[in-house]
């Protein structure tokens, strides 16, 4: 099968080539998939895309006209896919149903730890031979209330880590995990969790229901000075409302690995150019905000699993043995 990979960086290619093992003909494009770049897939049976690629109706229509029959996602979420359009155009959509949940959960912990103990600030200071402690005081995580919104695989991994710190773990999810409850996790209604938690970490998918889940109203329910960590999807946050809460002190600190309008910025080097996005610029310069560029998934183990699952999905499809949880549009 001829497969065109979009948004493919040099660090991904060795993993994909190793997982392919000469089963398919792979072509790698650095370009993001958009209606303007979809013509690059002409002559390919399948494409493979990442989180910020565009699988909207206009793109899918161009792909269909160019003979593409299949789109494989190198990710779990598929909110970037116009599913009715894919069904209409007969383009099958596959995904990676799971990869190392520990990678993202551990990154959420890393953001929290850095924000709390100000290690990112201390690192910059000591590089300049400044060894003072002013402004670096944190707090013990032991005994704090951690609110987890979404207790799927990643949320569950995060919960287990925080239990190991001696935290009291609160959770909100429509589907409650019996295992987490056995471990001592307490499920609460959303507003009750927001009002009780010292730290809130988001681990839920982006859906119409969760869009701007953390808005001005939700922020007003939170403890004053609470910490917020988002390693899920940028649009879970109402960015202007979060910025206002940071400025007023209602929100004490924010760790974010995703951003609502990240498509034009993340995975690219903007160091030589001022950011046109005023909100993102404000977030990256705020002393109580730590921004990473969607790197929560970025571990060796996760990259290997993503590559193997993606290529195996394509191979299994040829033999009609594809796992059900890998199919978005069949």
From TrEMBL:
Signal peptide: none
Domain of life: Bacteria
DNA-binding as UniProt keyword: no
Domain D-isomer specific 2-hydroxyacid dehydrogenase NAD-binding: start-end pairs: 109-296
Family annotation (Pfam families): 2-Hacid_dh, 2-Hacid_dh_C
Ranges for domain D-isomer specific 2-hydroxyacid dehydrogenase catalytic: 5-317
Keywords from the UniProt entry: NAD, Oxidoreductase
Single GO term (MF): NAD binding
Protein name: 2-hydroxyacid dehydrogenase
